[in-house]
Write a structure and sequence with these properties.
The chain is an alpha+beta fold and 105 residues long. It has helices spanning 5-9, 27-42, 69-78, 80-83, and strands at residues 11-18, 46-51, 58-65, 87-94. The chain has a 4-stranded antiparallel beta sheet with strand order 2-3-1-4.
Length: 105
């Protein structure tokens, strides 16, 4: 997947928003969440992830590569916190400006 230009051009930002049951997340779900992130990293999709601080209602964020929005939505819906009803998500696409693309100039 690393060689696909579209994968390199489009990033998606998943904001994981705490649901009403978020405080009831169990360790089994946390392990599934970490396994999911590890799998995304192994596949070359993961760019950055982590919990957020000082962002009310948002538990964390995952920045990842996907070939298109349909795939990005599938990835978000399969995130264990979302799939098991502990969280919802917001999805934002981004085309990163880099030195290589002259910061999109």
């Amino acid at each position: 997947m690393h060689g696909d230009e579209d994968m390199d051009e489009r990033l998606y930002i998943m904001l994981i928003e705490r649901g009403e049951n978020y405080n009831r997340v169990n360790m089994k779900t946390v392990r599934k969440h970490v396994d999911n992130i590890r799998s995304m990293d192994d596949d070359g999709r993961l760019v950055l992830c982590g919990p957020t601080k000082d962002y009310p209602g948002v538990a964390g964020m995952i920045i990842f590569r996907a070939k298109d929005k349909k795939e990005a939505v599938r990835i978000c819906r399969s995130e264990p916190f979302v799939a098991e009803g502990y969280a919802t998500y917001k999805l934002v696409s981004m085309r990163p400006g880099t030195r290589e693309n002259n910061y999109l100039l």
